Fold this protein.
Amino acid sequence: MKLYRLKILLPFLCLFVLGSASPKMTGEEIGNYIQKKLKRNNQVLRINSKNLGDDGIAYLASSPILKTVKTLILYKGHFGDEGVRALAESENLDQLTALYLENNNITDLGVEHISRSENLSNLKVLNLYHNQISDKGAGLIAESDTLTELQELNLIYNQIYGPGVIQLTNSTKLKNLKKIELTYNPIRKSAKDAWKRFQLMEWLKELNRTNRLNEVGAGLIGDLGVEVLL
């Protein structure tokens, strides 16, 4: 009886799955889409939940109309390291100051492309939320000679355990880095302490910049807080 029901339901299930997967965009479709987007604001390009794939990202990166873009957001674009390589090698993106590549299939190899890219040397914000990045990728960012302008880094929901966190929080290359987001990674305690110490130090610097050091007592709680203050 159960097998009979499964046979009846299977065609409908397949139809649902196939119907829910959006077809990959063609180069012409991508070109038309970004032209419309950039007419509204030629400095910000946001593409959400479009099936671009690596080929689509390569087409996008080759478009000269991206030369004015300062913020690029590619959310759930169904692309991976090859697409990232195309972005990193594009001379049309050298004005970028913020790059958001959330919910894609980017690994440490993709991070390597970003960390070595001269074209992305103006980045102040790099968001790699929910990808497949490990400690190695975090370390590549920490040791990058080209991401020296970076101020904010989002690595939430990746595969970072510890060594990458230590490298990021002690990086001598990323002197402008003020914010590191690492929630929902399987981080070990020693690395968590290093991250918390970094956050406290940056908070203290911000209080000093804004003449609010009188608030220190309210925020420094526990041994770690005392250690940072000392």
